[in-house]
Amino acid sequence: MISLFKRVYGTSPLHLLGQLVAFAIAAYAFTQVTKVGSTDTKSLLIWFIGGALLHDLVFLPIYVVLDFIARHGIRDHHPQRRVRAINYIRFPVAISGLLLVTAFPLIIGRSESNYVRLTGEQPPDWFAHWLLATAVVFGVSALAYAVRLRRSDPSAAPAAARADV
Amino acid sequence: MRGPWLTAFLGSLLLPLVVLVGFTGFMSHAAYNPNLGMNEIVPRDGDLDLLLFDWPTGPTWLYALNQSLHTIVGIIVVPLILAKLWSVFPKLFSWPPVRSLAQALERLSLLLLVGGAGFMWATGLLNMQLYYPWSFNFVVAHYYGAWVFLGALTVHVLTKLPVIRAAYAERGVLKPLMDDVADTVPEPHERHGLGPKEPAPTTISRRGLLGLVGASSAGLFLVTAGQSIGGPLRSIALLAPRGRGAAGGEQGFPVNKTAAVAEITPAQVGPDYRLTLNGATSTRLTRDELTQLPQHTETLVIACVEGWTTKQTWTGVRLMDLARMAGMNDDQLLQVISLQEAGAFRQTTLSRDQVMNPKSLLALQVNGEDISMDHGFPARIIVPAQPGVHNTKWVTELKLVNA
């Protein structure tokens, strides 16, 4: 009986039960949230489906292209160069990018009208804050790269065979 | 770089953090005491009341801790979530898309998981930043979204346990982190698997990748956590919505909503202002009469659901003294009503423990000055460990209600 089930379904009945639990909870939550008068089901679904696609269809293509450009744009295997530069670029770009992704309403001014209306104050210049944070992470990364380069310079120090990141 | 070990390891790091964010989320829901009076925001069917309890009044920083964890961990876990999604990206295009009924169902439940994560993190992050580009009630949708997400997550983890175990058994839990770039060998390619078919030259080690995630999380922490934790971090909270607070002075701490937004008029808070105590009898007190009652001073934190906190020194009348004046008995709760005429938090019902806590005040002063209009003049509630918006401002009436 179980083997017949496995042939038809693909795996054990427990798997099916588990999936059904997830669907049942989702269906319950959906009926509860759509009972509320202020809920616009279309908006809700757009945000839910959009949330599912956001990384794979928006973020990933952007960072894959950026990484491709970085990997092919930098001559990172120069015989004289013992420390690869790529990760000293990846790190600050990733950090700055994540700050932008998580705080974009502040940075591009989407929060401003509500901030002014609710708090009665002018908001700080978050765009400038983001630029400042970006400058700091690039600066720290450049400094780290310079230190690593110097340490790995065979003419400067004997213990140069340190592994890369 | 992709492969079952990497995905299992990223998932193992992610799980406890996500569980913490979920747990503190449900705790916050309970902290609003939605089972009392008209406190509910998420309509109550009664079927999930088993999750509710009388939210405690101490330690005084309890709600601040809860919301700091919810928001800070919620923010710093974002790089890890994205790394996890990156690690399983090839699965999106596995061909044929459906190989069995089981796999079809699992892909659908993954839509609930990934959609739930995207929904929860997007709405949570935007709500913290006072940006609401949607047409639903955030609280209701964020609450039920958590059910969808955590339900799908539980099933996903249980379904994947054998894969995780196999990956750790084969490669060790931590061993792949030891490899330098030169020794980093891609995980083997398998049909319908995660390992790359034609791996690009290795440019980063596995621990380097985790370092990238960790450095990104650290960056997010440094520019946001100050609004919750305070201290020196507050001055570098460059991208926190309520980082620096308001302009200086004794009352230069953040205002959630100004008197203007709440449409409080000067006439309402002028000489004709009265606080009404409604219980067995009805008493009306002027602000001067309130200042004649025994005054107490407490240093207490206001912690917003959005994660920002502010600790100030409040002076005023104990709520328990006012409740006793009104004749409060053991079965009664206290409903606090604001001069504010509209809005979800124009009234709040406090539990008996909250009213009877000696630190709970109807505050008339803050840091030695009369409370400003924007902070709730003539009088506001301050109760330890409760969500910020329950510390009702511009209080006009305290009313005893039956539990």
Describe it for me?
The complex is a heterodimer of chains A (165) and B (403). Chain A is mainly α and 165 residues long. Chain A has helices spanning 2-9, 13-35, 41-73, 86-107, 112-119, 126-152. In chain A, helix 4 (86-107) packs antiparallel against helix 6 (126-152). Chain A is flat and about 75 Å long. In chain A, 25% of the residues are buried. Mean pLDDT of chain A is 90; it is low at 157-165. Chain B is α+β, with helices and mostly antiparallel strands and 403 residues long. Chain B has helices at 4-31, 62-76, 78-87, 89-92, 101-128, 138-171, 206-224, 226-229, 232-235, 287-292, 319-325, 352-356; strands spanning 275-278, 282-285, 295-303, 309-318, 332-338, 347-350, 361-366, 369-370, 380-382, 395-402. A 5-stranded mixed sheet of chain B has the order 2-1-10-5-6. In chain B, strands 3, 4, 7, 8 and 9 form a 5-stranded antiparallel sheet that branches.
Short description:
The complex is a heterodimer of chains A (165) and B (403). Chain A has six helices and no strands.
Overall pLDDT of chain A: 90
Q: Which structural category fits the helices and strands of chain B? A: alpha+beta
Shape of chain A: flat
Largest interface: A-B, 74 and 87 residues
How much strand of chain B?
5-15%
The biggest sheet of chain A, with number of strands, parallel, antiparallel or mixed sense and barrel status, is:
none
Helix content of chain B: 40-55%
Q: How far apart, in Å, are the first and last alpha carbons of chain B?
A: 59 Å
Shape by Cα distribution of chain B: elongated
Helix content of chain A: over 70%
The number of helical runs of chain A is 6
Into which percentage range does the β-strand content of chain A fall?
under 5%
Low-confidence stretches of chain A: 157-165
Counted beta strands of chain A: 0
What string, H for helix and E for strand, traces the elements of chain A in order? HHHHHH
Q: What structural class do the secondary elements of chain A suggest? A: mainly alpha
Please report the distance between the alpha carbons of the first and last residues of chain A: 54 Å
Summarize the main sheet of chain B: 5 strands, mixed
Give the integer mean of the pLDDT values of chain B. Answer: 95
